[in-house]
UniProtKB/TrEMBL annotation:
This is Non-heme iron oxygenase ferredoxin subunit. PROSITE patterns: RIESKE (PS51296). Coiled coil: none annotated. It comes from Citricoccus nitrophenolicus. Residues 5-101 form the Rieske domain. CDD domains: Rieske_RO_ferredoxin. It comes from the Bacteria. Keywords: 2Fe-2S, Iron, Iron-sulfur, Metal-binding. InterPro entries: Rieske_2Fe-2S, Rieske_2Fe-2S_sf. The keyword Iron applies. Signal peptide: none annotated. Pfam families: Rieske (PF00355).
């Protein structure tokens, strides 16, 4: 069985879509990039209290609707200010057409998980 918690079926996240889930009390944005890959990021922007899942997916980045910083879906790093700190990227696995996210496994260890 996959690690973490099942959050949804893979079909529930369309290409270049982001959805917010709360897993173990942590808000997580589950995102499908333009290449079809799935990613899980901390949902709160590292700049201000804005939900990243309300933003726009562009290629392999999620753009914050607050002030336009776009976070890389693999590294969690913003491309331009005003955000300067990465957001956490969590382990995500697909098993039997379900998406599982493990918030206890942060893939970019330098990121803040708050
Ligand atoms: S709140 Fe996200 S860039 Fe400002």
């Amino acid at each position: 069985m996959a690690a973490g918690q099942r959050v949804c079926a893979t079909a529930e996240i369309g290409t270049e879509e982001a959805r917010r889930f709360t897993i173990d009390g942590i808000d997580v944005a589950v995102v499908r990039a333009s290449d079809g890959s799935l990613h899980a990021l901390a949902d709160t922007c590292s700049h201000e209290e804005v939900s990243l899942s309300d933003g726009f997916v562009e290629g392999c980045a999620l753009e914050c609707i607050g002030h336009g910083s776009a976070f890389d879906l693999v590294t969690g790093a913003p491309n331009v200010p005003p955000a300067t700190e990465p957001v956490a990227v969590y382990a995500l696995t697909v098993e039997e057409d379900s998406v599982w996210v493990d918030t206890s496994t942060v893939l970019n260890q330098t990121a803040s998980t708050s």
